[in-house]
């Protein structure tokens, strides 16, 4: 009975953490849109950096260790030996680079369409 109660509490804590992080990210993400006034580029840039930092910090400090553990457990269950190669870290890094590439492509297309 205690194991189940601890499991529910952990699930509730994850949902609450998710809601808080989503709120912080949305607030700092939409503040630059609300402050879209000439001469406020430094303020907008600072708020964008804070929003990006929250997302990056969440990923690297909270989610990456869980992903690494889950991938390690999955590899052991399926009896796959990768000689201690950091598959989870590689996957997260490639995902990040994919997102950067897609964002750069979107900005390039947007600039091309504007001209």
How would you summarize the topology of this molecule?
Blueprint (H helix, E strand, L loop, with lengths): L1 H33 L6 H37 L9 H28 L1
Helix pairs in contact: 1-2, 2-3
Summarize the structure.
This protein is mainly alpha-helical and 115 residues long. The protein has helices spanning 2-34, 41-77, 87-114.
Describe what this molecule looks like in 3D.
This protein is mostly helical. 85% of the residues lie in helices and 0% in strands. It is built from three helices and no strands. It has helices at residues 2-34, 41-77, 87-114. Helix 1 packs antiparallel against helix 2 and helix 2 packs antiparallel against helix 3. The protein is flat. The N and C termini lie far apart (65 Å). The model has no long low-confidence stretch (mean pLDDT 81).
Descriptive key words:
single chain; mainly alpha; 0% strand
Structural class: mainly alpha
Determine the mean pLDDT. Answer: 81
Q: What composes the largest sheet?
A: none
What is the number of strand segments?
Answer: 0
Low-confidence stretches: none
Radius of gyration (Å):
20 Å
Helical content band: over 70%
